[in-house]
Amino acid sequence: MTALARLILNLKGLPGIGEKSAQRIARCILRLDSDDAFALTEAIVQARTLTRTCKRCGNLTEDEVCSVCADSARMQNEICVVQEAFDIAVIERAGVYKGLYHVLGGALSPLEDISADELNIAGLLERVRAGNIKEVILATSATTEGETTALYVAAQLKGSGVRVSRIARGIPVGADLGLTDEVTIGKAIRGREILEGGEQG
Length: 201
Ligand SMILES: [Zn+2]
Hints:
Dna Topoisomerase Vi A Subunit, Chain: A, domain 2, 2 domains, 5-stranded mixed β-sheet
């Protein structure tokens, strides 16, 4: 196999990259000068080697605990629940949320055979049970899977005494959180709807 064929084959191994996209990316890579090509491979290896998940919330970090969890200025009594770690960066860019996060690692999906055990719901319940949490904001995607997951997590938190809210419908139905712009996300968080009253109603 030629080096180019091997590159295309590797690119095609990425989810969502088909033959055409792989060829297009390979063409871009071949046009790089050798310094830039080296920088790209270096970035891939470094990101892959150094990035790990925060042991508290599941966010991506190079340390044991992510920068959000390590920041004592953040509201320690609010947890925003997201499907993927990449969703955190999107919400952070909106700049309206100052609490903590919890990454589920996906959404419930009977079609893809993703059940509650495969998501980090137990970890969330544990954090809530440990006390000091006033509100859990469910910021899963506005897809059927995201909605189902939000309802499931809300049901699990029923009776825990915390307020449970769902981000507002500013997010277009069917939208992936990661593809939503920050203004919309900001509005959706501010206009969230309370599902469970918690102590303060
Ligand atoms: Zn964290």
